[in-house]
Amino acid sequence: MLIARNVLLTLLIIMLMLSAIAVIYSKYQSRHLFIQIQDKEKALDDYEVEWGQLQLELTTLTEENRIEIEARNRLLLTLPAQNKIIYIKP
């Protein structure tokens, strides 16, 4: 009877230790996944910021008077005087 009791007690202690190890492992996995989620959320925030910047750049580049502004500033072009313009009829 004493041997059976000791065997049962040993089995219960082993099961308790295995259960504790399983809880520790589960907590470790949970923390690991939480860190991965935070990394993905940060990457998503970075992509959203970049998307906003690209949308703003697209709006700037598609302005109608952008070509005229670039021609004046970069190429130093000006509109010719009214009497210098020659109209060609088709």
UniProtKB/TrEMBL annotation:
Main location: membrane
InterPro entries (UniProt xref): Cell_div_FtsL
Protein's GO biological process: FtsZ-dependent cytokinesis
Compartments, record wording: Cell inner membrane; Cell membrane
Membrane topology of the entry: Single-pass type II membrane protein
GO cellular component, one term: plasma membrane
Keywords: Cell cycle, Cell division, Cell inner membrane, Cell membrane, Membrane, Transmembrane, Transmembrane helix
Family from the record: Belongs to the FtsL family.
Annotated function: Essential cell division protein. May link together the upstream cell division proteins, which are predominantly cytoplasmic, with the downstream cell division proteins, which are predominantly periplasmic.
PANTHER family named in the record: CELL DIVISION PROTEIN FTSL (PTHR37479:SF1)
Subunit text: Part of a complex composed of FtsB, FtsL and FtsQ.
Name the record gives this protein: Cell division protein FtsL
Gene source species: Methylomonas paludis
Lineage: Bacteria, Pseudomonadati, Pseudomonadota, Gammaproteobacteria, Methylococcales
Gene: ftsL
